[in-house]
């Protein structure tokens, strides 16, 4: 395991100016993410977990503090296409086939045709969608669409995968299956993953580290190192170890809420 | 499909009943007047028969209009000046040219408005203002000005069509090009896509449903524009010229047949766009 730092945030703050006065979406957020980590961000809505991910992706600008991605600013990282971003909705274009959708970022980035075809078939294989290249999004289930959108984020060589509640809109069974697949994919590709969720079992099952956040102002209240092995069958969720980590996450979330009302 | 037939037939039948009744009511005074001068008394059935068969009725009966259309389309050579097909083609050519120019102008303006903040702030009010000017007032000006610089014939009429048809296209396309949501635009940003790439790959395809809706309105407006363009110019050909000539000589049957022809033309053109819309959007997975 290397300890190369992929993301380094120091005293990061982001304040939105609204008509009702300033909203502190992030305050004094300090966190390092190392290469190969699977880091989950968990917390109630408004705790800034999505905002933090968006700052890493240069979709929001911090108003104070420092953040680097791969040692450079998020903007430079974005311009060098350092990360793949998976949104809550699959966001596939209905007028493009699954293959065409995965090819989209490759076209934009100027890969040649042969390389595009090779990469599309490789990532389709990775998310177990081989044979669906010529299908249109509406011919696929919601879970398959989300897998296609993950394939699209993997198609170019980004070592960092940022995922914003990618399975939030899917049902429990599909979600379990995708979680399992995501872990396998992470093991095989050794990517660094930042994963926003509001499901405690999901966070504990997937992560090497769980970052617990709390709202008003959005901040980190606890960082939990997972003691689970990297190999995780689904039934690991019934072990005492798993339950203990889940318990700690729940405690952390509750502590964050103690400031409320 | 079958369920739609009955209501449509019912509505059409109702229109015919009202039309025939209105023809009787409107044409009866003239029939009575003539009968009085001739010193005869008309029975009700004679009166009705007369109101449905006058030469220059206030409101011609449907069968008179149909007979006139039949006479001036099927029974005349299409190159004849008395052929409604000939006149329809004159109007149609101006309509299509104006529609093409209007669509191109509309899309170009919409692209400018979406991509350029200055245009967004400055152009839209003028576009809206342009549509508040009565087209009947500005049409002769356009014809006169263009004539003065040596442009006559098809183009001036097409310009008036363009003037009416670019507006729905601008409005629809601005909305359509702005229809991709935040997530889709953010996604493009994560790939560091250029404005160009975002336009061709996301904004333009997303705008297609809006474009087709606008094109339907634009096509109808374009036909109105072409007909209006024929009115003030003393044009000798075109549906507008037929309307004008008909009104000079009190040829109401000719006016109504030209009107129905224009309506049929508009319906056919709009339906054609509808078919292209269905096929395109279906193939794009957006229908």
Automatic annotation (TrEMBL), chain A:
Coiled coil: none annotated. Gene3D superfamilies: P-loop containing nucleotide triphosphate hydrolases. The keyword Nucleotide-binding applies. CDD domains: ABC_NrtD_SsuB_transporters. Keywords: ATP-binding, Nucleotide-binding, Transport. SUPFAM superfamilies: P-loop containing nucleoside triphosphate hydrolases. Residues 7-240 form the ABC transporter domain. GO terms for molecular function: ATP binding; ATP hydrolysis activity. Pfam families: ABC_tran (PF00005). InterPro entries: AAA+_ATPase, ABC_transporter-like_ATP-bd, ABC_transporter-like_CS, ABC_transporter_ATP-bind, P-loop_NTPase. The keyword Signal does not apply. Belongs to the ABC transporter superfamily. PANTHER family: ALIPHATIC SULFONATES IMPORT ATP-BINDING PROTEIN SSUB, TAURINE IMPORT ATP-BINDING PROTEIN-RELATED. This is NitT/TauT family transport system ATP-binding protein. It comes from Thalassovita taeanensis.
UniProtKB/TrEMBL annotation, chain B:
PANTHER family: ABC TRANSPORTER PERMEASE PROTEIN HI_0355-RELATED, ALKANE SULFONATE ABC TRANSPORTER-RELATED, MEMBRANE SUBUNIT. This is NitT/TauT family transport system permease protein. The keyword Transport applies. It comes from the Bacteria. The chain crosses the membrane at residues 89-115, 127-148, 154-174, 210-233, 253-276. Pfam families: BPD_transp_1. CDD domains: TM_PBP2. GO terms for biological process: transmembrane transport. PROSITE patterns: ABC_TM1. The keyword Transmembrane helix applies. It is found in: Cell membrane. It is a multi-pass membrane protein. Signal peptide: none annotated. One of its GO terms (cellular component) is plasma membrane. Belongs to the binding-protein-dependent transport system permease family. It comes from Thalassovita taeanensis. Its main location: membrane. Residues 84-277 form the ABC transmembrane type-1 domain. Keywords: Cell membrane, Membrane, Transmembrane, Transmembrane helix, Transport.
């Amino acid at each position: 395991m290397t300890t190369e730092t992929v993301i380094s945030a120091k005293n990061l703050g982001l304040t939105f100016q609204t008509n009702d006065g300033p909203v502190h979406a992030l305050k004094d957020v300090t966190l390092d993410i190392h290469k190969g980590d699977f880091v989950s961000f968990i917390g109630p809505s408004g705790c800034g977990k999505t905002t933090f991910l968006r700052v890493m992706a240069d979709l929001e600008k911090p108003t104070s503090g420092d953040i680097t991605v791969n040692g450079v600013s998020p903007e430079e990282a974005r311009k060098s296409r350092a990360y793949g971003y998976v949104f809550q909705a699959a966001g596939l274009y209905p007028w493009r086939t699954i293959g065409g959708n995965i090819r989209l970022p490759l076209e934009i980035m100027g890969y040649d045709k042969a390389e595009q075809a090779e990469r599309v078939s490789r990532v389709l294989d990775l998310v177990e969608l081989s044979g669906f290249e010529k299908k249109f999004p509406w011919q696929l289930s919601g879970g398959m669409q989300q897998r296609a959108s993950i394939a699209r984020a993997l198609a170019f060589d980004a070592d960092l995968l940022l995922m914003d509640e990618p399975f939030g809109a899917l049902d429990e069974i599909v979600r379990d299956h995708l979680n399992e697949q995501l872990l396998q994919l992470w093991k095989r590709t050794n990517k660094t993953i930042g994963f926003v969720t509001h499901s405690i079992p999901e966070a504990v099952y997937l992560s090497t580290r769980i970052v617990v956040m709390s709202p008003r102002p959005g901040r980190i209240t606890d960082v939990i190192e997972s003691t689970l092995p990297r190999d995780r069958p689904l039934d690991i969720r019934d072990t005492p170890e798993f339950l203990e980590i889940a318990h700690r996450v729940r405690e952390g979330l509750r502590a964050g809420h103690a400031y409320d009302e | 499909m079958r369920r739609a037939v009955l209501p449509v037939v019912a509505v059409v039948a109702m229109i015919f009943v009202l039309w025939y009744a209105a023809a009787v009511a409107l044409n009866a005074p003239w029939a009575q007047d003539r009968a009085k001068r001739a010193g005869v008394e008309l029975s009700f059935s004679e009166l009705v028969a007369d109101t449905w068969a006058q030469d220059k009725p206030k409101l011609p009966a449907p069968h008179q209009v149909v007979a006139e259309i039949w006479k001036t389309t099927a029974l005349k050579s299409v190159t004849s000046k008395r052929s409604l097909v000939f006149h329809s083609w004159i109007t149609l050519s101006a309509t299509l040219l104006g529609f093409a120019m209007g669509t191109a102008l509309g899309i170009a303006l919409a692209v400018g408005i979406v991509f350029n903040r200055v245009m967004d702030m400055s152009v839209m009010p003028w576009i809206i203002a342009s549509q508040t000017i009565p087209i009947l007032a500005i049409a002769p000006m356009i014809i006169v000005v263009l004539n003065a610089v040596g442009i006559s014939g098809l183009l001036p009429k097409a310009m008036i069509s363009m003037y009416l048809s670019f507006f729905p296209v601008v409005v629809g396309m601005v909305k359509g090009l702005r229809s991709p949501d935040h997530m889709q635009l953010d996604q493009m940003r994560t790939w560091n896509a250029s404005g160009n790439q975002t336009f061709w790959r996301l904004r333009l395809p997303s705008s297609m449903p809006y474009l087709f809706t606008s094109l339907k309105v634009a096509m109808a407006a374009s036909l109105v524009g072409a007909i209006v363009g024929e009115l003030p110019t003393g044009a000798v050909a075109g549906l507008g010229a037929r309307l004008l000539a008909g009104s000079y000589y009190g040829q109401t049957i000719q006016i109504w047949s030209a009107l129905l022809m224009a309506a049929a033309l508009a319906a056919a053109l709009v339906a054609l766009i509808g078919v292209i819309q269905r096929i395109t959007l279906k193939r794009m997975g957006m229908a």
